[in-house]
Design brief:
Elements (H helix, E strand, L loop, with lengths): L25 E5 L2 E5 L9 E4 L5 H8 L3 E4 L5 H8 L4 E4 L7 H7 L5 E4 L9 H6 L3 E4 L5 H16 L2 H9 L17 E5 L3 H12 L3 E5 L5 H5 L4 E2 L2 H7 L2 E4 L13 H5 L5 E5 L8 H10 L2 E6 L12 H4 L3 E3 L8 H19 L15 H23 L9 E8 L9 H12 L12 H7 L3 E8 L10 E7 L15 E8 L2 E7 L2 E6 L3 E8 L4 H11 L4 E8 L5 E8 L5 H9 L3 E7 L2
Parallel strand pairs: 3-4, 3-5, 5-6, 6-7, 8-9, 8-11, 9-10, 11-12, 12-13, 13-14, 15-16
Antiparallel strand pairs: 1-2, 15-17, 17-18, 18-19, 19-20, 21-23, 21-24, 22-23
The structure holds 1,4-dihydronicotinamide adenine dinucleotide and 2-oxo-3-(phosphonooxy)propanoic acid.
């Protein structure tokens, strides 16, 4: 499975590989030395741990591209042990993917796939810090969840579960299980997203008057299916039935509680197919016992599975199911394929359309920016190595010179790769599109961006990129701009990332290897002298160029080298009398 050249670095910790690794080359700190290990599992395939039951179609797809370990019902300890050998993890709602999992992975885990919608069981902050992409399967179980919501609504209204249990117990209690009708009653849908809107559509079909509360849903989308968008207060105070279809977030946690139950229509009936945590379960018990809430139908619970003597589950006015909202054959096949495609794509360095903790960048943008992504990282690496140790990098400006209008140029990838180039050489973290901004902020590096709009041809997305570091001392004085900042500029020339300016000096050197910069008084023979010293040590020179301010004045020679010259060789170059300063920059 070929990987897009260079793009896997968006998510992996590729280090100094000259040919793109199909899968991440994993860096392990070992006795304070860095040993590059190829630990991509048997036969060069990544290893994917499937920790909860996944539809066979998804498993089959994964097995085409990876070693698949299906291990269910793992304890936290077992999961943390296994995860250190895995490149990806697939879960549903039953596995808590906390910070301990990412810490145990020690940077190897590149993708967590959630085969469903809700990602509240994944510590997104920790995932981002560790550069691990989180993807989900947001659509394949929508109908299943909506149908389950309607099933619970109708079963609750007609006491189906209770009546079923009683008849199975040999009783014939018709009057006890008289229910209520739905037609003409008001249903309030809290959360008018994919599931909520499908529930609303179906409830309309049952003759219900449907209102919805969702601060982020457009009113016209609700009106389009005959649903009225109302405030939270109107929703909970006028509804005969309330159905919950919102994510568990800090804002929605215990949204239904003693105060809100007290403001509801007495005898209201509650359906929850979202997350247990959106209801204060103790308050619901009190509301049921007091009669404020007549009935509840619950598919989800704060703690799953609920404890055996859970009072809500045992309550006679509660209809309960064990988190079955997505449990249909069709939905499980659908989420399995959806998440398998997303995980395999992400391991290939492609951006999944269902990335939860990284910006979505369309594949066509990725393709067009590919050489500029490499250029951006190299410029970051160059610039930071010019900083005198101890200067402290805190203010970096990236300038994109382009004939495209700002709206037609997505620079998020480039920003991430400049950060990667700036910080990886001076730290032990690996950086990718997922965690770049987090790591930069954590290290106090402020990245500003500006666009230089040119009036050339918009055919090429970018004319050049500059990286400027302010408030630092430079190891190479010639890299300083008029305002005393370290400034390097690069372009993509015939598809090759190239250094084209250092400070005030124009140069032209491919950034495919490492770079030696020398400043000398412009004079004949310098290229030959330096080239000869490098040749004596069998260091291959890929590019050589001299940039000067004026003939006979100062000049900067930029030399691209495939190998790292020895200290002795570099000293010989520095000892050339005409050379006033030089620096070796490892890329
Ligand atoms: N029981 C089960 O098996 C299943 C449960 N779910 C749960 O249902 C939830 C919704 O799923 P989808 O509709 O696919 O997600 P979605 O993201 O399409 O819709 C969620 C809606 O909630 C709204 N929302 C967010 N905060 C809100 C607030 N404070 N007040 C009102 N509305 C708010 C959002 O604007 C959005 O429209 C998921 O987050 C998941 O937790 C989803 C599928 C299956
Ligand atoms: O998709 C969701 O949010 C769900 O709650 C489905 O949960 P499950 O994958 O069935 O454990």
């Amino acid at each position: 499975m070929a990987t897009p050249l260079g793009l896997s670095s968006l998510f992996s910790s590729r280090i100094h590989t000259t040919t793109p690794s199909l899968f991440p080359i994993h860096r392990k700190e070992f006795n304070r030395r860095r040993i590059i290990l190829v630990t991509a599992g048997g036969g060069g395939k990544p290893t994917i741990l499937v920790a909860e039951k996944l539809g066979q179609a998804g498993i089959d797809l994964l097995k085409k591209h990876a070693n698949v370990d299906c291990s269910y019902d793992l304890s936290v300890e077992e999961l943390c042990t296994k995860i250190s050998l895995c490149d990806a993890l697939i879960v549903r709602s039953g596995t808590k993917v906390g910070r301990d999992v990412f810490e145990s992975s020690r940077g190897r885990l590149k993708v967590v796939g959630r085969a469903g919608v809700g990602i509240d069981n994944v510590d997104l902050a920790a995932a981002t810090e560790y550069g691990c992409l989180v993807v989900n399967a947001p659509t394949a179980n929508t109908v299943a969840a909506a149908e389950h919501g309607i099933a619970l609504l109708t079963a609750m209204a007609r006491n189906v579960a209770q009546a079923d249990a009683s008849i199975k117990a040999g009783k014939w209690m018709r009057s006890k299980y008289v229910g209520v009708s739905l037609v003409g009653k008001t249903l309030a849908v809290l959360g008018f997203g994919k599931v909520g809107s499908e529930v609303a559509r179906r409830a309309r079909g049952l003759g219900m008057h449907v209102i919805t509360h969702d601060p982020y849903a457009p009113a016209d989308r609700a009106r389009a299916i005959g649903v009225e968008l109302v405030s939270f207060e109107v929703a909970i105070s006028t509804a005969d039935f309330i159905s919950l279809h919102l994510p568990l977030t800090a804002a929605t946690s215990k949204m239904l509680n003693d105060e809100t139950f007290a403001r509801m229509k007495r005898g209201v009936r509650i359906v929850n197919v979202a997350r247990g945590g959106v209801i204060d379960e103790d308050a619901l018990l009190r509301a049921l016992d007091s009669g404020i809430v007549a009935q509840a139908a619950l598919d989800v619970f704060t703690v799953e599975p609920p404890v055996k003597d859970n009072k809500l589950v045992l309550h006679e006015s509660v209809t309960a199911t064990p988190h079955l909202g997505a449990s249909t054959m069709e939905a499980q096949e659908g989420v399995a394929v959806e998440i398998a495609e997303a995980v395999v794509g992400a391991l290939r360095g492609e951006l999944a359309a269902t990335a939860v903790n990284a910006p979505m960048v369309p594949p066509e943008v990725l393709r067009e920016l590919k050489p500029y992504v490499v250029l951006a990282e190299k410029l970051g690496r160059l610039a930071v190595q010019l900083v005198t140790g101890g200067s402290g990098v805190d203010a970096v400006k990236v300038t994109y010179a382009s004939s495209r209008s700002p709206d037609d140029l997505d620079t998020r990838l480039l920003r991430a790769m400049v950060i990667k180039g700036l910080i990886e050489p001076i730290s032990s973290v690996f950086i990718n599109l997922v965690n770049s901004d987090y790591v930069a902020k954590q290290r106090g590096v402020k990245i500003s961006e500006e666009r230089m709009v040119l009036d050339g041809s918009p055919e090429d997305p970018i004319e050049y990129i500059t990286v400027t570091i302010a408030n630092v001392e430079s190891r190479f004085a010639s890299a300083l701009s008029e305002s005393g900042e370290i400034k390097v500029e690069g372009r993509v020339k015939q598809g090759v990332p190239s250094l084209t300016k250092v400070g005030l000096f124009g140069v032209d050197v491919s950034l495919e290897g490492s770079v030696i910069l020398c400043r000398q008084v412009d004079q004949p023979g310098m290229i030959g002298k330096v080239g000869g010293i490098l040749g004596d040590e069998n260091v291959n020179v890929s590019f050589m160029s001299v940039g000067r301010i004026a003939p006979g004045k100062q000049a900067v020679m930029a030399i691209g080298v495939d190998e790292q010259p020895s200290k002795e060789t570099l000293k010989k170059i520095g000892d050339i009398s005409a050379i006033e300063e030089f620096v070796f920059l490892k890329l």
